[in-house]
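Fold sample X.
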Amino acid sequence: MPRGYFITFEGLDGSGKTTQLRRLATSLEAEGHSVVTLRQPGGTALGDRIRSILLDSRSEAALGPIAPAAEMALMFADRAQSIAEVILPALTAGSIVLCDRYTDSSEAYQGGGRQLGSQRILAMHAAACDNLQPDLTILLLPSLEASLKRARRRNQRHAEKHGTDENRFERESDDFYRRIYEKYEEIAAREPHRVALIRDDASIDEIQTRIREIVSSRVTAHASSVYF
């Protein structure tokens, strides 16, 4: 059976990536594709436990400050489990895998935001993930200010509704997020063949149309290379 196709979605929280991933999954399934979706951290039993530690703002009150290198290591423990349990089996079965965050997030958040640097992140990726790369990355980079406002508003609503939150990162400074934003720009410039960068603050429907055009052409080209 031909190998499937691996697509990741990247961007700051509040960039719209999760909404666009869900819309793309619906469109691809309507076309008859087998689609597997997941998020990182999370998506496995181990990953969900790691997610609760890394994202809940109360974690550090219970555990103490999480060192940047420990944060990085936990992210990759989640990712390695996700690859073994979900991603590789789905690709082997010929499915299209849509993943909400992957190693680019670690390079941006831990490498850029936490200032660990890209080299350490990429070395960890090679070791923990056997250097498995996405076939295509959709990077949504609307304005920094708009993304942060949406993310903080969303997490406040989530906390009010569920009594839990995932805003440990959202409490960081604007400078932290500026470093993340700049690191994402650096990744896109370094790997233009893989990363499809969508910058503007267009409507959800307009962004969806652009993503569908990009994915359709890339998936078609992949299918042609497999069969011919």
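Fold sample Y, listed below.
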Amino acid sequence: MSRILKAAALQMPNQTPYRKNLDRLLAHLERLHDHDIILAPEVSMTDYDYDHLEAAAAFGEEVIAALSERVGSQVVGLTLLTRHTDGRYTNDAVVIHDHRVIHRQSKHKLFLLGEEDRHLAAGPQEGIRLFEAGGLRYGVLICFELRFKELWRQLEGADVILLPSQWGLPRKRHLEILASALAVMNQSYVIVANSAREDMAASSAIYSPSGGVVLDDMQEVIRGEIDRDLLKKIRRYIVMR
């Protein structure tokens, strides 16, 4: 088991038709074949296409099939619009590893300013939980959920917290401050993948539990490292109990 893992946060725009977004993601996976963890932004495959929710959800199933075929030892995360049998739609974080979906959770805290609640159903809070892959403990928060400190507590003990986002440009500093604070407070790595659309904050980054950050608004791929020894060192040095 390697001490250092390579991580990548994608800072992608949304394109139409949907297939362009999947092709772009697959191309990134090909180029990042030696990376262990890859995170794409929130709803990066379809955007919040409320006028075509059924089509967006159907395409989400195509995305899962394509990624499940392609993704082996890597951990790949993103969010997809999902249709449920009762007709509800949710925004689901999906994490794929070893050719299958290993974790799925529906967005619990909907962004009222963006009127998400008019189109999507909220997921249960208990869906925000730790899961394991490749010897690491992971957690996921979806965009607006980063603002809620009670959700930080649910992810205590995570080695890596994934944060797929579509965070607006006017609140750019909020994203950066909160993500950095989460990494230090929870003694975890935090990987932020945010939309590169013109009205979005960018700010995709990899934050370390020691306060370090790799951030570059000009790049579509932000690369960093997950150091298992640093996690152990920080937790031994500053005991949170």
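Sample Y note: The mean pLDDT is 96.
Also: The first strand starts at residue 4 and ends at 10.
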